[in-house]
Amino acid sequence: MRLLFVSPVAADAPPGGRALLANLHRTALREILAANFAEHLIDLSQRASPAQALAGHIDGVTAASIAAVVARIGAEQIDAVWLDGSNLGRLVQGIARAAPHVRTIVFCHNVEARFFAGALRAAPGLHALGVLAANILAERAALRAASTVVTLSPRDSDVLTRLYGRGADAILPMAMADQIAGAAGDDTLLPPDAPLLFAGGGFYANRAGIAWFARKVAPRIALRTQIVGRGLEPLAPPPGKSLVDADPVEPGEDGCLAPVAVEVAPRLDERVLRRLFRVALVAEHAQQDEP
């Protein structure tokens, strides 16, 4: 099988969650398929007309970009196409029409309709409404035209089923490549009062996430949490606690913290990551306790 990996996310894109996961999938598929792996990067500078965008031609999907992918399928005798995101629905639809013999595999990073509905509730307006409509139409096209749909969780699959009448054919849980090289450090070298860092912009999902953390996780751990990022308002700690702290963070000797950074800077010490992992387990148990 010869597979074409199609994504709007470049291999050297800034390391956000979507980019990290796309790169992990890209690397794994390349290692498995070797010479039978090919890649196509969607040019995000290509934009559809406003009317086409409202109809779901978003994230670089235009008539020209669809034609370019279809041309590569024919020229390189592609058997299957991995599409990195349900927002590429109009591209999935174009492939299904032009090359119905080719298997299309859509990986859903999340449920776009649910994600942008949250954005609309957080900041109502015509622009947010248009973005939601465009993503719903793109996602619906992906679910209807794809040969195989892959989601991160059964929960996402259930939501897709309720919205579009089709869920996942396979579940591929969230994973991250190890970013730390070298020998493991000693947890005891980490100062006992070292805070837990939450870094991100003031997007609604980040605000909801840290508010949930403060309510459900912070009372269960003996760590202060420092919040770094533009637009994140201070959060009150739980009664009798001082585990959530919105004070600015000054760069330390390891240079890994920035006071107004939107993402975590270049690297975190492995000892910190191991502590974060333990906190993540606590967070997972807290979520399982949810009714």
Q: Can you walk me through this structure?
A:
- There is one protein chain.
- The chain folds into 2 domains: 169 residues, Glycogen Phosphorylase B (Rossmann fold, 3-Layer(aba) Sandwich), CATH 3.40.50.2000; 102 residues, no CATH class.
- The chain is 41% helix and 12% strand.
- It is built from 9 helices and 9 strands.
- Strands 2-1-3-4-5-6 form a 6-stranded parallel β-sheet, sandwiched between helices. It has a 3-stranded parallel β-sheet with strand order 7-8-9, with no helix packed on it.
- Helix 3 crosses helix 4 and helix 5 packs antiparallel against helix 6.
- It is globular.
Keywords:
3-stranded parallel sheet; 41% helix; 2 domains; single chain; 6-stranded parallel sheet; alpha/beta; globular; 291 residues; 9 strands; Rossmann fold
Spans of at least 5 consecutive residues with low confidence = 235-270
CATH fold assignment of the largest domain: Rossmann fold
Please state the overall shape, judged from the principal axes of the Cα atoms. globular
CATH architectural label of the largest domain: 3-Layer(aba) Sandwich
How many helices does DSSP assign?
9
N-to-C order of helices and strands: EHEHHEHEHHEHEEHEEH
Which structural class do you get from the secondary structure elements?
A: alpha/beta
Largest sheet data: 6 strands, parallel
CATH class of the largest domain: Alpha Beta
- Give the spatial strand order of the biggest sheet: 2-1-3-4-5-6
Q: Report the sheet-strand fraction.
A: 5-15%
Radius of gyration: 21 Å
The number of E-state strands comes to 9
What is the fourth-level CATH superfamily of the largest domain?
Glycogen Phosphorylase B
How many domains is the backbone divided into?
A: 2
